[in-house]
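Re: Re: token formats

Sure, here are both.
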Amino acid sequence: MGDEEKRNRAITARRQHLKSVMLQIAATELEKEEGRREAEKQNYLSEHCPPLHLPGSMSEVQELCRQLHAKIDAAEEEKYDMEVKVQKSTKELEDMNQKLFDLRGKFKRPPLRRVRMSADAMLKALLGSKHKVCMDLRANLKQVKKEDTEKERDLRDVGDWRKNIEEKSGMEGRKKMFETES
């Protein structure tokens, strides 16, 4: 138990050391990133915004204002063009998403459950309570009665088979057989 406890402590200490080293490296990377961003910002400002000299006379100040207004107008036009492009691309994206939904089905269809419902209840659900339709299928079936054929009647009427044989024996019995068959 002592060796295992020592090993667990060593593993935990190593993990803690690795975490602290990783955090130190991340902190130095963040500082470098912040310095890089500040340098990029200064470079951009020096390129795009020349230092401002304020002229002494009124006509020079008016000329400077005209130049600034021209630059503002150009920037506004560029901004408007960019907004129009963004709106156009968002509309295209929405159209494409709509087509995608149409192609693969907008909603997940729930699994259908089997419902036991009588024909009357189904018609009532479909047509509403206004329509009174009775779908008693058994009542609508035609009643078919079997017609008794003579042979079946003979089979039913035959009581004792011995009497039947005696009746058919002899010439008269055979004569009766031929008469019934033809």
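Second one below.
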Amino acid sequence: MGGARRVGWVAAGLVLGAGACYCIYRLARGQRPGSQRLRLRSSRSAEDLTNGSYDDILTAEQLQKLLYLLESTEDPIILERALVTLGNNAAFSTNQVIIRELGGIPIVGRKINDPNYSIKEKALNALSNLSVNVENQIKIKVQVLKLLLNLSENPAMTEGLLGAQVDSSFLSLYDGHVAKEILLRALTLFQNINNCFKKEGHLAKPAFTKGSLFFHLYGEECAQKMQALVNHPDADVKEKVTIIPKF
């Protein structure tokens, strides 16, 4: 059970990192069916915002209180409730902008490093809703890639990462026009996974399914992108590409 949940949020992170999270990642838990009409509520205390009905559109002031609560509490129950409330409110375009302008994306992004997997899941769900806004996507790529880089250094996570189902747009991270910060992180992710893959002694290709990260990273399309990046104008990118072993 724990392993399945771990792969679940890793897969979600990969999809988010690719910027392809328009309703692709859906949590089975914490979802509310239907499209109920939401209503505005008057100002309440920060913890009150996490109790009772989650079907309320919060004001900017209330969202600010909620973000402060996420930063100030270590109570896992309150954190989960706050992330659920924030995630539900992040489904609305106006709130996607407000949360970004309040500095909420890094606050939520830091919660995907929490050791509690339920908190990770709810943070990823909130980021998924926030990422529907185009201006939010770059900030969220960056946040998720930081997590994935940490995971990719651990050989024990290699099989789970490579087996995660990823949308084909993940490979857009390796386009030459991608911002240098993101491109270098994406290349380092590939390098780390490659190193761990070799270190684990996986000389024969395991039976990863079509659509998995393995399928994309070691496919022809990715090989072509790597070859194109050899001629990238930035020296750091060129150097990073050349040290990734060829399979």
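The chain has a mean pLDDT of 77. The chain has twelve helices and two strands.
- S.
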